[in-house]
Amino acid sequence: MIPFGYAIRNLFRDTKRLLQTTLGSALVVFLVMVAAILNSGMTRVLSASGSPRNAILLGAGSEDSTLRSEISERAAGIAESSLAGLAEVAGTRAVSPEIHQMTLVSSGSSGGRQAFVRGVTPRATLVHRRLVVTEGEFVSPGSIMVGRLAWKRLRLPRESLQPGRTLVVEDVPLKIAGIFAAPGTVMESEIWMDLNDLRALSLREHLSCVVLRLTEDSIADVDLFTKQRLDLELAALRESDYFAGLSDFYAPIRSMTWLTALLIATGALLGGLNTIYAAFSPRIREIATLQAIGYHRGAIMFSLVQESTLATLAGSILAALAAVLLLDGLTVSFSIGSFDLQVTPWVALVGLGTGVGLGIIGTIPPGLRCLLPPVHSALRSPT
After folding, report:
1. Phi and psi of 2, rounded to 5°?
2. Is residue 233 part of a domain?
3. What is the H or E stretch that residue 356 is in?
4. Which of 209, 242, 309, 354 is deepest in the core (most CB within 10 A)?
5. How far apart (Å, rounded) are the C-alpha atoms in residues 206 and 362?
6. Are residues 25 and 121 located together in one domain of the fold?
7. CA dihedral (186, 188, 191, 192) positive or negative
8. Is 230 among the domain residues?
9. Residue 125: inside a domain, yes or no?
């Protein structure tokens, strides 16, 4: 085997080429890490938003979106009195009738933005167990409560969404009663208001859904209830299955991020091949000399791969540092919520693997071009 120091010395023979390779690979790795962070963040928030202990009653035919669902208001009372497997807290059954709506929200001094508004009753805390009021108090008639990430979704200063301030929902000013957190869920970018207030504001006569907290994971009884009460036109889903369906719905978007990163990586790889070809071409005689003194072609190729991989790994480290400094903790919004970007060990591993792949794949074609000519002709090469 060729000593490792040989690859290191060759790496610094041309500092300009080393800098070009390192920065080019850093850019590619960074873009791949961005795709990985976005995909893992969206998947994480959607998978964490639904509880397997919760069931959702939706309008039949609207199982893919609570925003399109409409069910009779009496469905909540009928389900509460008919189902035996519902959880209870202090004698109150965990049944939450809700209205979900995308509507225009503004601070009054700025243009409005679409936000997810949820109309609830105090019973919502019985089914949404991750919700914690961190400031102020729970929503009451004439007021609203905002998620801790709502200010980022609305692109407003954080101070404008503090308790006591006012938000305009569909031209109606409402006082902010409190701020809530629901770690890892899409609810953190929502706005909650009293169920009757939202019903009057949106001129709706129907609910969007009823969320039930079950004593066991099975929803067989709930599903049987929807089949028996055909007059209510209901469908039942486990809450975790509902959000899994949403994750599948957003799969094409996640695929597009990977495809974009792959196309950019391919373009950069082709450019890198030209750079490595130009770097290896003057070394044909040197490589032939190594063969002449007894080194096998495999050992020489391995040394060339080491040389390039060191440069791309340095680029991977730069990309990881950039991702931590620029992306970690950044909040990204999509149609139904927001999530914080996290540079997880898996993301770092994806970046490391990309750097190694660039070093190996980018070296093999130019390396073979230098190794394949016969030794006697390569020794007479003018380059």
Report:
1. -75, 135
2. no
3. helix 345-361
4. 209
5. 61
6. no
7. positive
8. no
9. yes
3-state helix, strand, coil in the chain (%, to 5): 50, 20, 25
Question: How far is the C-alpha of 335 from the C-alpha of 46, rounded, in Å?
Answer: 12
Classify 200 as helix, strand or coil.
helix
For the chain, what is the domain count? Answer: 2
pTM over 0.85: no
- Model pLDDT for residues 293-333, shown as the tens digit of each residue: 777 877 878 888 888 888 889 889 999 999 999 888 887 77
Instruction: Provide φ and ψ at 177, rounded to 5°.
Output: -85, -30
DSSP for 113-149? EEEEEEEE-TTHHHH-TT-EEEEE----TTEEEEETT
- Structural contact between residues 96 and 78, judged by C-beta atoms closer than 8 angstroms: no
The Cα 8–Cα 151 span in angstroms is 50
Would you give the DSSP letter of residue 66?
A: T
77 and 187 housed in the same domain: yes
Greatest CA separation found in the chain?
Answer: 94
